[in-house]
Amino acid sequence: MRVERPVLVHVVHRLYRAGAELLAADLARSLSDEYRFAFVCLDEVGPLGEELRGEGFEVRCVERRPGVDLGTIRRMAEVMGDLGPSLVHAHQYTPFFYASSARFTAGTPRVLFTEHGRHYPDRRKLKRVVANRFLLGAGDRVTAVGGFVRDALVRNEGLAGSRIEVVYNGIDTRGFGSPRRGREEVRRELGLGAETPVAIQVARFHPVKDHATALRSMAHLTVSRPDAVLLLVGDGECRSDLERQVDELGLRRQVRFLGVRDDVADLLAASDLFLLTSVSEGVSLTLLEAMSAGLPVVATDVGGNPEVVEDGVTGLLAGRGRDVELASAMVRLLGDASLRRSMGGAGVEKARSRFDRGRMISAYRALYDAMTERGVLRLAC
């Protein structure tokens, strides 16, 4: 008996190469034999969206305007009516709001709402708490990428904890432990010496990632380790401000802007530690990638970071915005190769045991099956 693939629509802000969007793309690529996936972007298609179009996925954009845009609700309802999904998977709160609101005019199906992270500062808003009682239907489901995110949904969105399932982000942990090129080759390409202390930060240039604190930390670090280098991988709205800060701090020789790269595993293998200075975080994919590559981590003690980084075991945590503390942690790790190896090894074990991609995909597949008719049809076959 041949089972027709149900249509499943991912709703996102935009399809850039960021955590929520990469997860949505990974699920679509991995489960396309069982579901027919499409994507609806609120704001713009983005480079990942164009890539997905090239692979044959349908990608639409409803061109949301600032504020609460009633026109977006109407356009969302029209798109959903055209696509005819059996399930809508909304990534982050605003996509959930518009996907759920469209049901009042289009009768769109059940919604799976996945929260990936939280804004900072994160405050409870009574209007949203009340609205959520109407937006979240009886047949809808909610997932959070970590315990911190789940608690925030209960505390600040008024959602019942019993309705929220934690599904940790997952990556190909084995792949990041197997770079295509060796450490020496990559360092030669970057003009780095074999013994140069190298920290790396992989994150979009956005205020929530707080690269400004990373640069201040680097300025403190170079007092005792003037030969240290920080590799910044990524791009975004804050780049010009960060380049200006690098000049003001006199760090042009120590900080390298590498842009968006497709050889992150190679760059991690060429580095000595991973740095993440976010003011808020869900479960960072780049943290998981670094740990899978065997790198010890220095990160801010915010959001889901403590769920990923075990302080003193897989890395070192410091307070939000505490550039001196972060610099001290980097000095400690760069001065102790044995500690780096120990923490790196512990990070690999934790990443593989808790944050494996296969486990994540299986969890979402089970949710999809439970929320559509596919689970019933699978048993009938």
Automatic annotation (TrEMBL):
The keyword Glycosyltransferase applies. Keywords: Glycosyltransferase, Transferase. GO terms for molecular function: glycosyltransferase activity. It comes from Mucisphaera calidilacus. Its EC number is 2.4.-.-. Residues 183-346 form the Glycosyl transferase family domain. InterPro entries: Glyco_trans_1, Glyco_trans_4-like_N. This is Glycosyltransferase EpsF. Pfam families: Glyco_transf_4, Glycos_transf_1. The keyword Transferase applies. Residues 19-173 form the Glycosyltransferase subfamily 4-like N-terminal domain. It is an enzyme of class 2 (transferase). SUPFAM superfamilies: UDP-Glycosyltransferase/glycogen phosphorylase.
